[in-house]
Each structure stands twice: as C-alpha cells, then as structure tokens.
C-alpha cells in the first residue's frame, strides 16, 4: 500500500515541545504529537470506495491487513508523525478556552491527483486535549458520521469526508441522554478526510493567548494552501481572507437550509475555516418543515442551533473569527464592514436557492411566493424533502386542487388539510401556478431542473438509527445499502422507493431519531 505523503501542517507550523501524552494547556503551538491508541480487536466495517480512489488506493489495498492497521490506529504509516490540533472555541455562546482534538488524531496529508487530503482518526484515544473525557467514540456516532458526510458530499454540500470506519473491539461507557444511565457501548474509529481540519477555534485560541506571531503563521499557512486566490498583501490579505471565509460559510449554510440539514452544535470549534460541514454529532434532517426544530436535546432549552437560526449563528461565529483576526489587521472598521454584508449576501443566496427549489426563473415574483410558502408549510406538519421533490410534478395547467393532491404525500396528517388550512394551500398554489404560466420553461424542463436541487433521498434520522440498530447486532448490510442509496440522492431509484417515505410514527420521539445528545 503506497500513499504519497506530503505533510505540511505539522511541518510548517510550530508544534508542542512536550512529547508526553498527558492533559495540559498547550501554549505557543498549533498541535501536539500523539499516537493513536492500539485497539483490542479491530474490525473494518465499511469503506467509502470513492474516498479510497480519492487518496490513490485500490480495492486490493482496502482488503489488506495494512489498511485495517493504519486506519484503525494500530500502526503508524512509515515516516509519518500523528498529531492532535490545538484549538479553542465558543460553545453555546460562551468562550470555553482550550478544547483541541480530544479524540481526533491526524495521521498525515496525502497528495493525489493534485488534491490534498488530511486524514484523521476520530475516536483513536486520549490526547493532551482530552480534558476529562476518554478520547474514544462509539459505534452509533461513527455510523452517523461516516454515512452522513458521504451523503452530504453527494448532495453537493461542502463537507469533510469519511474514508472508513472500524470497530475497535473495546467497550466504551456512555450516558446517552445524560440522565444518569451510563452503559457500555461498542467502540469505533472513523477515518475522516478533508483538505484540512482547521477550524475557527484554531485562530481563536492563539488570539486569546496573544500569540500573534503564531496566529499570523497559521493565517498565512491557511491562505497559502487553501485560499490561493488571495493574492493581496499586508493587512488587506487578512481582510480578503475573512471575506472569503464569510462567503464560503454563507454558501455552506445556504446548502444546509436547502437540504434541511441541522448541524446541532455550531460552536466555533465546529466551524471549518474552509467552509466545510464538520463534526457530525447530534445533527438531524428536517422531516416536518419547522424553523424551531433542533435534533440536539442538549440544546433543547434555548434552541440556539435550531434550523431557522443557523444563518444567524454563522454570522455570530464569523464575528468571533473576526475578533481573532483583529491583531493581524489592527483596525476594526474594515472587519466590521465585511461582517455587516453577511446578512444581505446570505439573503440573496437564500432567495436564489429557494427560487431554484421552486423551479422559478424570474426573481420578480419569487420572494412573495417563498415567504408565503414558508408560512403554509408550517400550518400542518409537512415533510420538507417530499414536498419539494413532488412539487416538481406540478403542471402549469393543474388546478390548485389537483396540485394539492400531487404533494399530499408530504402531509403527516392529511386529515388536517381542510377548512382554513386547505384554503391557504389553495391560495398558495394558485399564486404559484399563475407565475409558472408566465414562465418560458416547459413542465418537463422545470421538473428536470428541480430534481437536480431537490433531493429525493436524504439520511433521515430514523434511517441512520435502523442501520445502527442492525450494526449493533453485527449486521452491516443496511449501512452499505444506505451508502449506495445516498450516492445518488437526486436520481429516481425504484429499487429503493421505500426510502422515499415520511418518518414512521415509531421514530417520532425515539432516542437517536428525534432526540440526540452530544454524547458520542
Ligand atoms: P464536540 O462538541 O463534540 O465537537 O466536542 C467538543 C470538544 O470536546 C472537542 O475538543 C472534542 O475533541 C472534545 N471531546 C468530545 N468527545 C470527547 C471524548 N470522548 N474524549 C475526549 N475529548 C472529547
Ligand atoms: Mg468538535
């Protein structure tokens, strides 16, 4: 098994001088060297064949003993030096100080086809940043991260990826709902991949320690490798950097809103500096369209990270990043200006996206149609994914009545669609149909466009849970079925029609389906 290793992060940025693996505050460094923990009985459960190719490996490589050893953390690849990154973060609105890779260990960077991939094990044991926790991860959260990051990629959402995951053979104690019921679960290790895993928090920790020299090194490193389009110099370079991070963050969040993804823990340590969806924890997918919804029970009280608040939190987090970059600019006004444009830019992108989901060409009439729709969708529980997918079946010459029938499958309680609610739907459809009639596209062309932006299949919360329940019993077939299904989320897949369905009633209030905590 041959990989083209090209480590840059650990070579170009200052590392921790202390080499022992004990918990500590790590100052003046961007990372600490630490090796993954050996596991008692590693077993490979699933590999993303696409990620395998991306890093230049073959199917034969994947079946080798070496693959299992390297990517479950049981052997260090020759001439590489694993390390954990140092970062801080604002958690649920408060500065939390040093956090860091408490259970993620970076293996190395690979170059293949001119693409850089940093590979990182999650759940590979303690690091200097583990604080009071064990450095491990469990099967359920690993299945969720592996499947969802690959599914997001195929949906066209910027994201970190997942190469593989394996069972460790070790038991891990978790109190799933934090309610005093700890129990042993199966331990697992995910090998995830991204251009880089640098987060907003990597900058924040250096700024908080007034370590401006290293802060500048980190910013220069990030720009050099991941924002090559930035060619300005001096202070302008860091302003352009913030501008680009802002734009990528907006782009990512608009995609989340488009597909109905709720991250669940948008702390600044979980915000990628590359605008990638990162750290799949208590995330969830909208089923009924509801701005207030969050899958994360740890956040149930304030719902800071609810679906409808994600765009605002993106901006809040960028303010924290701007504060961290301030020492490199020493002038608040231009930083402020970049952030003040966030809202306007977000709304433009959001409207464009919603217009496309509705299959509309003209923006003239679409704002009104969009805002009306957001209201009607909430009158009765309406499945977000099914509604938009089936909306593509509407013809210009439909009556509002038969248009409603075409999307009826999206209603969780069809018997509620009568009286005032039915009138509201009727009004909305008559406005929508009026606009469709003025547009040039044929019904067929519009449907084709809409089916490229409105997915048919997403990783509904209950689907991941079914795969987890099976995996817990040693049956991994469903993991692969979902992986294959979600490779083509926009395609009709008649064999998999059963996955184009509303959340079943049993999953409405089930742990893992509608209720998730940060325990993972
Ligand atoms: P999260 O909100 O899950 O992204 O985690 C926040 C912080 O806690 C990060 O610094 C993680 O590395 C750390 N962390 C989470 N779970 C564990 C664990 N089991 N062991 C050590 N550190 C952890
Ligand atoms: Mg995290």
From TrEMBL:
<dbReference type="Pfam" id="PF02696">
    <property type="entry name" value="SelO"/>
</dbReference>
<comment type="similarity">
    <text>Belongs to the SELO family.</text>
</comment>
<dbReference type="InterPro" id="IPR003846">
    <property type="entry name" value="SelO"/>
</dbReference>
<feature type="binding site">
    <location>
        <position position="134"/>
    </location>
    <ligand>
        <name>ATP</name>
    </ligand>
</feature>
<protein>
    <recommendedName>
        <fullName>Protein nucleotidyltransferase YdiU</fullName>
        <ecNumber>2.7.7.-</ecNumber>
        <ecNumber>2.7.7.108</ecNumber>
    </recommendedName>
</protein>
<feature type="binding site">
    <location>
        <position position="279"/>
    </location>
    <ligand>
        <name>ATP</name>
    </ligand>
</feature>
<dbReference type="GO" id="GO:0000287">
    <property type="term" value="F:magnesium ion binding"/>
</dbReference>
<feature type="binding site">
    <location>
        <position position="102"/>
    </location>
    <ligand>
        <name>ATP</name>
    </ligand>
</feature>
<feature type="binding site">
    <location>
        <position position="199"/>
    </location>
    <ligand>
        <name>ATP</name>
    </ligand>
</feature>
<comment type="function">
    <text>Nucleotidyltransferase involved in the post-translational modification of proteins. It can catalyze the addition of adenosine monophosphate (AMP) or uridine monophosphate (UMP) to a protein, resulting in modifications known as AMPylation and UMPylation.</text>
</comment>
<keyword id="KW-0067">ATP-binding</keyword>
<feature type="binding site">
    <location>
        <position position="103"/>
    </location>
    <ligand>
        <name>ATP</name>
    </ligand>
</feature>
<keyword id="KW-0464">Manganese</keyword>
<keyword id="KW-0479">Metal-binding</keyword>
<feature type="binding site">
    <location>
        <position position="279"/>
    </location>
    <ligand>
        <name>Mg(2+)</name>
    </ligand>
</feature>
<feature type="binding site">
    <location>
        <position position="100"/>
    </location>
    <ligand>
        <name>ATP</name>
    </ligand>
</feature>
<dbReference type="GO" id="GO:0030145">
    <property type="term" value="F:manganese ion binding"/>
</dbReference>
<feature type="binding site">
    <location>
        <position position="270"/>
    </location>
    <ligand>
        <name>Mg(2+)</name>
    </ligand>
</feature>
<dbReference type="GO" id="GO:0070733">
    <property type="term" value="F:AMPylase activity"/>
</dbReference>
<keyword id="KW-0460">Magnesium</keyword>
<keyword id="KW-0547">Nucleotide-binding</keyword>
<feature type="binding site">
    <location>
        <position position="122"/>
    </location>
    <ligand>
        <name>ATP</name>
    </ligand>
</feature>
<feature type="binding site">
    <location>
        <position position="192"/>
    </location>
    <ligand>
        <name>ATP</name>
    </ligand>
</feature>
<keyword id="KW-0548">Nucleotidyltransferase</keyword>
<dbReference type="GO" id="GO:0005524">
    <property type="term" value="F:ATP binding"/>
</dbReference>
<feature type="active site" description="Proton acceptor">
    <location>
        <position position="269"/>
    </location>
</feature>
<feature type="binding site">
    <location>
        <position position="135"/>
    </location>
    <ligand>
        <name>ATP</name>
    </ligand>
</feature>
<keyword id="KW-0808">Transferase</keyword>
